[in-house]
């Protein structure tokens, strides 16, 4: 084992080599780990066909002890938090399956999820990786938690099919492809987008990735306005923009960076600038420009708002409008700061990993 690791091996069911290895990274997750691991153990895939590996990223609680009640293998990282990419790679090093599935510690996958992953890879020989989506019934209540999880569901459902990225919250990859591609990049500069980066790398090497939204998991995370802003700005917007800038060939625009999303970001930037000019000059033309840009943004988002209304209500959809506009405003700031040759996103450190409940948040 690599330096700084301690491994605790639980009794594996059966002696045959499993076809699938499931890796769950966790840090300070004792409060939700019993739910997510129970959901995994409730899989309709026969227990002898897969193994469960939990990697404890130097938790300050009893996560490792909780994991030993469910997992075949528990790996304890003891040199301080190293991040989800590092943890997943350490789990992959001991995985015995021909397919490696990654599941976030705060995701309760549906009972058929593992089976659907393996069936996809067995049925479609040209597919190297597959990932799913959150279900439409997130565990946490409240506007922000419901909106964030439903938004994820909507985007993954809308863009189902071939993808150029990967999602480690609920996804699987052929083990030999994972190894040949070098696993997750452990660089601190891409913490929080390491699965996206892996997807870009696999796609660039000609490996086919598919998004199958019928592979589902329930997200247990409770979102707040603060965590939403930090995620969209510091943990996602800037690193993802840096990642796109680092690509020799620009990846196709899908999911959250499709053309319509870029247009909305520009429109909200125009609206914000027009509001500033209106306040500065008092000229009503700028207020008109701001209003027009906002209306255009909402028009582009009409399918999402209608879907949210069907899932919840029109009142819920209308309450989500300010959150959607805030998202685009944060995108604008992220792009501007990512373009700077210093600070914000370029000089990243592991200090963010010390924050409680960081592990997987997207």
Summarize the structure.
46% of the residues lie in helices and 17% in strands. With 362 residues, it is α/β, with parallel strands linked by helices. It folds into two domains: 5-222, Spore Coat Polysaccharide Biosynthesis Protein SpsA, Chain A, CATH 3.90.550; 256-354, no CATH class.
Question: What share of the residues lie within helices?
Answer: 40-55%
CATH H-level homologous superfamily name of the largest domain: Spore Coat Polysaccharide Biosynthesis Protein SpsA, Chain A
Might you state the CATH topology name of the largest domain? Answer: Spore Coat Polysaccharide Biosynthesis Protein SpsA, Chain A
- Strand content range: 15-25%
Low-confidence runs: 10-14, 342-362
User: How many whole angstroms does the radius of gyration measure?
Assistant: 21 Å
Q: Give the rounded overall mean pLDDT.
A: 87
